[in-house]
Amino acid sequence: MIEKMTKYSFVLLSGEAESFLKKIEELGVVDITRSEKPVDETSSKLFAESEECRKAVKYLEALDLASDPDQSKFKPSRSDEISDPLSLFQEISAKEKQLVEEIDADWKEVQELRIWGNFDPEKLEDLRSKGLKIRFYKVPKKTYDPSWASEYALEEIFDDGRHVWFVTVSDDPDYSFPVEELPAPENDFKEAEALLSDKEGEHIACKGLLYTLKDYIPVLKKRQGRAEASLQRYLADVGSGKAAENLITTFEGFAPSKDEERLCKAFDSMDGVLYLKDDAVKEDNPPIKLKGNRFTRMFTVLTDMYGRPDYDEFDPTPYLSVFFLLFFAMCMGDAGYGLALIVIGLLLRKSEGMKDIAPLVSTLGAGTFVIGIVMHTFFGYDISQAAWVPAWLKKCMVTGNIAGFDANMVISVLIGIVHLSLAFILKAVYATKKNGFMNSLGTWGWTLLIVGGVIVGGISLTGVLSSTVTKWIIIAIGVLSAIGIFLLSDIHRNPLKNIAPGLWETYNTATGLLGDVLSYLRLYALGLAGGMLGKAFNDIAAMTVGDGSFGVGWLAFALIFLIGHALNLAMCCLGAFVHPLRLNFLEFFKNSGYDGKGRIYRPITNKQNQ
Predict the structure, then answer these.
(1) Angle, nearest 10°, between helix axes 41-62 and 85-116?
(2) How far is it, in rounded angstroms, from Cα 527 to Cα 192?
(3) Do both 320 and 178 map to the same domain?
(4) 353 within a domain of the structure (yes/no)
(5) What does the alpha-carbon distance between residue 572 and residue 331 come to, in Å, rounded to a whole number?
(6) CA–CA separation, 556 vs 268, rounded Å?
(7) Considering only CA atoms, which of 433, 476, 422, 452 is closest in space to residue 584?
(8) pLDDT at res. 523
């Protein structure tokens, strides 16, 4: 149901805009019309501050002092000496990241220099000045030839079993060696090791400061909240109108009418603020707030995927909630999968990022369990033939055929007819509400023809009405519908001019309606496909058991059963989500005339303690 809104217009001095918006924040229910302008320097700066605070909090919360091998080396810091924790975090975290990269590179260099040991670069240079050149080599063990030592002035430095490191000394200007030369080490091992040790000490100091900053997580969260609130106020201020040489500011806002008394008292107490109020109408483009019970609120997210209703439209969420749940359960069609979804929903409640959708998952699982019992399938097994199932429960299961067709297929089509009939009724009711009865006769004509025909046809099949009575009722419905569709669809013009548009609409409705009804066969097809695939996994798993004796066969059975049904559950969930959405978004919304172009109600509010 769409909550009634009150429109407020505010006039105040421009210098009071900031304090005014802070007071609106505290009220927490007023949606101020926001700017449609591109992001500018001020809003970009506020957004960046909020985002940097969020990143800092996330990083610091993830730090685990207990598992850090260097915790005993941290030097305690006085947290009260830190005046700007965000700037310090950005500086230290950047330095810490750079040190990690440098330490990794220096460590590799130390490992290489460790092979050559300690040497004096000045002595190397002294040898070069005397015409002696030292060359450095590293070759695989299988490539190294010990006979080289008899031909060259060669000294083996290290042999790790896979490679051999050695040097040669020569004063021959025509010197050549059958192995590619390595670059001479630039640093001494001890110097490189000392440099690495210094950087590791800096790294430990940086980590110590970062752990000290963990005490500032609440401060950073508050700063993030202030930045977000300031950004919200700024966008509202940029969207305001200004007059009288920028000295007067006007705002427009909307709030639920149920809060009108409380808000008016608050506005009356604000000095220097003039406000006007009026009932919101569609032309004001008020934000849309939907209200419902605990059940329907879970499905509001699905409505928002298509779009919230206009202010004078109907709220589709109550209808969407019932039929999406039913369609999802029919597409899944397995009571075992329903239990699995209930368990998944309970587990999601413990996840911070997923707990909001956990109730919806459990509800869909409960619906799937009930419909799965009706469709007599439990993890791919047909439980209608199971001896352990009570007789009273078997009476609830749909089996056999109806008019020569599978009963579940016929039920899918019948549910589709009911769904579409409801759409036509809603279209006629809300068309009357918006335009008046006389301006909606064409819509009522189609509703009478389709819904009335379905009702009379259903009653006649029960044998309550005789064929003669049924015939005359159908004729009466046809005549009244034809008058509305072909003559009175637009009462403001000549009735004869309505015939051609009526014929065109008849063609479109007749061809489109048949396709819409047949679309509901997907409920049967998806449920059947999931059940057959589940049965196939059961049969494959059963083949591994052999004679039934305990052994490897039962392990293979368990693996195939679990993995197979896990894959089938995932695929069924995907199809059971997409196709029911399609039936609601296309078939139902199209035939109900639902537009869904309303904007979401977003009051400016301050949820942080600032």
Answers:
(1) 60
(2) 68
(3) no
(4) yes
(5) 7
(6) 75
(7) 422
(8) 92
Tokens of 296: 């329907």
Interior angle at CA 61, CA 55 and CA 64, nearest 5: 130
Strand order in the sheet with 133-140: 133-140, 163-170, 153-159
Ranges of beta strands (E only) in 57-173 are: 133-140, 153-159, 163-170
Kindly indicate the confidence band of residue 610, based on its pLDDT and cuts at 50, 70 and 90.
Answer: very low
Count how many domains the chain has: 2
- Report how far residue 254's alpha carbon sits from residue 564's, in angstroms, rounded to the nearest whole number: 53
Helices within 260-406 (DSSP H only): 260-268, 294-297, 300-306, 317-332, 335-348, 358-374, 391-394
Coil, strand or helix at 243: strand
Range of 167's domain? 120-184
What is the percent of the chain with per-residue pLDDT over 70, rounded to a whole number? 90
Amino acid at 398: V
Q: Please check whether residue 533 is in contact with residue 568, taking contact to mean a CB–CB distance below 8 angstroms.
A: yes
* Lookup: tokens for 456: 């009379």
Residues 178 and 319 in one domain: no
Cβ within 8 Å of residue 62, ≥6 positions away:
none
Query: Does residue 86 lie in a domain region?
Result: no
CB-count exposure of residue 389 (10 Å: 0-12, 13-18, 19+): middle
Torsion of CA 26, 27, 32, 38, to 10 degrees: 20
Q: Tell me which of 166, 184, 202 is where a domain ends.
A: 184
The DSSP string of 251-266 is EEEEEEGGGHHHHHHH
CA–CA gap between residue 201 and residue 195 (Å, rounded)? 10
Q: How far is CA 139 from CA 107, 116, 156, 181, 245, in A?
A: 22, 14, 11, 10, 83
**pLDDT band with cut points at 50, 70 and 90 for residue 80:** low
pLDDT, tens only, 206-245: 878 888 888 888 888 888 888 877 766 776 666 666 665 5
Residue 121's identity, in one-letter code, is P
b/e code 80-89 from CB counts within 10 Å (16+ = b): eebeebbebb
pTM, rounded to two decimals: 0.66
Looking at 146, 164, 184, which one is the last position of a domain?
184
Under DSSP, the state recorded for 186 is: S
Give the separation between CA 379 and CA 342, rounded to whole angstroms: 15
- Joined together, the tokens standing for residue 545 give 């058991």
Nearest to 441 by CA among 502, 497, 504: 502
CA atoms within 13 A on the CB side of 9: 8
The verdict on residue 610 lying in a domain is no
**Residue among 526, 511, 224, 527 nearest 373 (CA):** 527
Contact between 249 and 236 under an 8 Å Cβ cutoff? The reply is no
Of the candidates 435, 417, 412, 414, the one whose C-alpha atom is nearest the C-alpha of residue 593 is 435
Four-residue CA torsion sign, 488, 494, 495, 496? negative
Q: What pairing do the DSSP bridges indicate for beta strands 273-279 and 248-256?
A: unpaired
Count, residues in the chain = 610
Looking at the domain assignment, is residue 415 inside a domain? yes
